[in-house]
């Protein structure tokens, strides 16, 4: 229907399987990998162990101008949440977090968090958006950036810990299956 041959589709599906996003089903094809509450807790714990101290270190070492360069992306996250643009929200959120962590200079750290983000896909995003909870989560990005630019490493670490915990609790509240986006 889309004019794409089976070989690139199969290769793409195998790439998704290698990333753990889908699993092959013998004689049927593929299905989306289920992510359990325990999985989400473990991914959140890993992200907290990595991102909280990294945000503190970046706050103490990064040039304020470099941090300020992230402001348009933080504002875009809020705008996309207000516009109910879930795909735009997810993309801007990914860019913000990975660019922020990129200021650490550790490419493996960024790669690892990127992988954890893929594996923990946001659940219940549509429901959260409809309940108006997505905007408050989006605004935490601007708050984090403000704390970092002010040089408040402890405040930034606390905000990041709260943000990750908030996102995890939102997943639990909105657990209605994978995000439509």
Overview of the structural elements:
- This protein is mostly helical.
- The protein has 2 domains: 33 residues, no CATH class; 139 residues, Four Helix Bundle (Hemerythrin (Met), subunit A) (Up-down Bundle), CATH 1.20.120.
- 71% of the residues lie in helices and 4% in strands.
- The chain contains 9 helices and 2 strands; from the N terminus they run αββαααααααα.
- The protein has a two-stranded antiparallel ribbon with strand order 1-2.
- Strand 1 and strand 2 form a beta hairpin.
- Helix 2 runs antiparallel to helix 6 and helix 4 packs antiparallel against helix 8.
- The longest helix is centred in the first third of the chain and has 25 residues.
- It starts with 5 loop residues before the first helix and ends in an 8-residue tail after the last helix.
- The C terminus is likely disordered.
